[in-house]
Amino acid sequence: MPFDDRNFPAAAAGAPDAALRNRRLVATWLFSVCAMIWVMIALGGATRLTGSGLSIMEWAPLSGTLPPLSEAEWQRLYGLYQQIPQYELLNKGFGIDGFKQIFWLEWTHRLWGRLIGVVFLLPLIVLAVRGAIGRHLVPRLALLFALGGLQGAVGWFMVASGFFPDSTTVSPYRLVVHLTLALVLYVAILWTGLSVLRPVRVLSGTPGLRRLVKLSVVLVSLTILAGGFVAGLRAGLDYNTFPLMDGRLVPEGYARLVPFLRNLTENVAAVQFDHRLLATVTALVALATLAAGLRARVTGLALGALLALGVAVAAQYALGVATLLLVVPPALGTAHQAVAVLVLTAAIVSLHALRRVS
Ligand code: HEM
Q1: Of 200, 231, 252, which residue is a domain's last?
Q2: How far apart are CA 311 and CA 166, in angstroms?
Q3: Is the dihedral angle over the CA atoms 325, 328, 333, 337 positive or is it negative?
Q4: Closest CA to 313 of 349, 343, 358, 348
Q5: What CA–CA distance (Å, rounded) separates 226 from 339?
Q6: Residues 316, 286: contact at Cβ < 8 Å?
Q7: Does 108 share its domain with 18?
Q8: Cα 223 to averaged position of ligand 1 atoms, centre (Å)
Q9: What is the pLDDT, as a whole number, of residue 8?
Q10: Minimum CA distance residue for ligand 1 atom 30
Q11: How many CB atoms lie under 10 A from the CB of residue 222?
């Protein structure tokens, strides 16, 4: 969908100042939602890494907003938790106080999700009614809201896989679907906000630079996907050396599963190796992209975004290695998950700033 003045009725009516104000207002709102999704992704990482994600066995989008308000309600929820294998296998006998500790993080994660929905929907209605957003943009934003609701359902679909017999964690596949949908939503809202703010397409950079930026976006996305499988399989708890894995560059047993494709998602050694390899290629390509941008003398937002990409990817690489060497402490693992979103953000803003005029 093109972003032009038809999306901002005040401009069409010949009021450029009002249109500019509307654009800034709408963009600020969309970027605020992005910031909330970023916090949500970090909270999700902390929830997973502290083993809190399976503590609420019900999916109650409305009534679940309130935490337990009586001792009887705490006991009821604790009773439900005692029925799942994670309690039997990992937390047996940790008592109501232990249960409360893991409950609060998962509850906060869900509450934050509901808040994002409210912060998206209410301004959407108000801005659309006041004519601050035009007819052309409303369906796209409504679709994004519906996708947000779907993400809540996918979250529950993921959590439900943790209740299977003998299971103490959720399915890695469902975890990756949940992470991917969160990032698709994040990128779509970010891109929409950027397009609202900068509807005029100014061509800058060279075709070679634009190709490198696109490659960076693809590689960052693939590395994040691979990271999802490392997290889902808890593959960071093994091979805690760098750069060698058990004394070898390519770990023994890389291709031990048949058919071969299963190794990419189910074999701890291969999943961790692939993430390392992809991260290394991503970091090199992102730094080459920054160098190409400096050579092409890009300025303004494009320069800022490319510099941010270089810094973020280097920090993320270092964080990844530290997380691995220290055997995934929750604080570092959460930071690694959060900074991944910043790397993606820098790559997407670079792409937007350098996009081609059609
Ligand atoms: C461009 C660089 C990198 C990106 C974008 C990236 C991204 C990610 C993401 C998104 C996750 C978690 C996904 C989730 O929780 O669902 C993850 C997990 C992980 N990554 Fe990276 N990563 C990068 C570099 C590295 C490097 C260089 C290493 C180590 C050599 C590393 C080691 C790990 C480990 C051990 C985990 C699992 C942590 C956990 O269980 O929470 N990463 N990565």
Answers
A1: 200
A2: 43
A3: positive
A4: 343
A5: 15
A6: no
A7: yes
A8: 8
A9: 54
A10: 321
A11: 16
Same domain, 211 and 192: no
| pLDDT single digits (tens) 121-167 | 999 999 999 999 978 899 999 999 999 999 999 999 999 999 998 88
Q: Please say whether the beta carbons of 243 and 249 come within 8 A.
A: yes
User: Does 109 count as an annotated binding residue?
Assistant: no
Ligand 1 center–CA 75 separation, angstroms: 37
* Residue 305 shares a structural domain with residue 235: yes
Q: How far apart (Å, rounded) are the C-alpha atoms in residues 329 and 46?
A: 10
Structural domain range at position 333: 202-358
CB distance 341 to ligand 1 below 6 Å: no
Is residue 352 marked as binding? no
Which protein residue's CA is at the shortest distance from atom 18 of ligand 1?
Answer: 227
192 CB less than 6 Å from ligand 1? Answer: no
ipTM for the predicted complex = 0.96
Length of the chain: 358
Report how far residue 351's alpha carbon sits from residue 210's, in angstroms, rounded to the nearest whole number. Answer: 7
